[in-house]
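Q: Convert this sequence to structure tokens.
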Amino acid sequence: MRPALCVTSGSRVEAIMIGTVSCSDMWGARRARALPDGDGSSGLRVTSRIMPIAGAVQGGDWCEAFAVSDDLLGLSIGDISGHGDGAHAAMSAVREAIRDAARAGLDPAQTLAAANAFLRRYDANAYATAVFGLLSVRRHRFTFANAGHPAPLLTGFFGAAYLEFQSADLPLGVDRNLSLDVHRVDVPPASLLVLYTDGVTEHERKPLQGAAQLREAALFAYNFAALPTADVIGKQMFLTGPNLDDAAILAVWSAADGAAPVRLRGAPSVRSSYRRPSMRAEPA
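A:
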């Protein structure tokens, strides 16, 4: 079968799978699943889940994966100030600014700096936390910048580790001259990278406990890789009822050894936003 990128419809969960794939509508009862290649391995897979604050139809958190080149997959996640419907317009504008900057060839730090400048022009009173990174599917390396956002979580045969650094960069919209560090992390084959917003780990207003719970949820999802990962993590984090905050999860499986090579350029993006139906990381 020809390697392909498939994007499901529906706004609760979206998924893309690269390699040998099967896709279906994630809003209904059906779920997308990866079909094994001849050697039992699978290609790059991405799932996402978005959960609004109680009573909201759309909100201020986003997550998105999109092709930047044949080799690079852009991963974007963030949280605009405010909640629910009132934050949606600013969220959409910042998300688009990040994608446009990345596709113009900027590195992750430059991409978020461009989004920072855009947000200050768009709304001088708004701010946003965000992570943007480029995942090289051939080199198995994640290059990213973090603007005041919760640290990504990497899970694999080694366990689970938050990609935290001593330096902490400011959120978007705070400083006109925002300068961000670029970090590079090796992502072993068949490992799981989880990006999320603080609504996931702070839904019970206990951030340290929430971080520990997310680590355990990611390890659980890693051991049940055939299931839709973002959905599994959301359920493990008890994000199944009315939430006190907007929340988003973007879960990315790196391709296993032996998976068919893929080309990302020209593939559609996978995006999640609210719209219901009516190990050690080394700095650069």
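The first helix runs from residue 88 to 103.
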